[in-house]
Amino acid sequence: LHDSWFSPPSCHPNTRKTVLKEIQEWLDKPKSSPVLWLNGPAGVGKSVIAKTISGLQNNVVGTFFFSTSSDRSAATLFPTLAWQLARRIPETRPYILDALKSSDALQTSQIEQQFDLFIVQPLKNVSCSGKLMIIDGVDECVDENMLKRFLRVLTEAAETHSMPLRFLICSRPEPRIHAILERAPDDPPDTPIGLSDESKEDIARYLEDKFNTIRQPAKNGSPWFQQSDIRELVQRSCGQFLYASTIVRLLD
Q: Which UniProt key words apply to this protein (predicted)?
C-alpha cells in the first residue's frame, strides 16, 4: 500500500475557470451522478486540473494516478485508495485492518472483492458525506479487462451502495472508456467535461504572464516579446498546455 498522489503543478492563476466551475457545480449538486468524467487529449492539462481540485477541496480522501510504471495495473488501485482512506478518515482504519487480516484480498485478482472490503464496507460503518476520490490517467491502465471491471465497479457500486463518495475520472477521450461509463445501470455519469473550449485563451494568458517574469534583453525598455509571438505560440500549441510549459522552461 502506498500514497499515489502525483505532483504536477496546480492551474496557473485565472486559467481553467470554466472547467473548475463545472466540477465545483457537480460537487455541490446533491443529486448529480456519483461519477464525473474529465477528458481531453494528452498534454491538455487533465492532471493539473485534478491536482487543483484536490487543493481546493478538503473532502478528497483518495487519489490514484496510472501514469507511473508501478501503478499501471488496476490490481493496486483499491488497496492504494484504502490506505489513503484510512489516513484521511481514521474511523475507517479498524475496518480496513480487519479486512486485511481476515482475507487474502491483497493477493486476489477479484477487484470487485477489493472494492467491497476496502472501500464500501469501511464507509458503511462510519458517518461521513460528500467525499471525493480522483482517479487520473485511466487510459494508461495496462490491462483492458481490469480497466473495464474497475470502471463498472465504480459506476455500479457508487449507485447501489448509496455511498457518501464521488469519483472524478480523468483520461483521454477514448471510446472504450466512454462506452463503459455510458452503460452505468441506473444513473449514468453527468455529461462528460471535455477540455478544449477555453484552452487557447488560457494558454495565451499563461504565456504572457510567464514571459513577463523572464528577463531577456530588450531595446528601448519595451517587452522582449510581441503579442504576435504569443498568438503564434498559441496556434502552434493546438490547445496543449504541455507545449506552452515546455516553451517557458526552454526560455527561462
A: Repeat
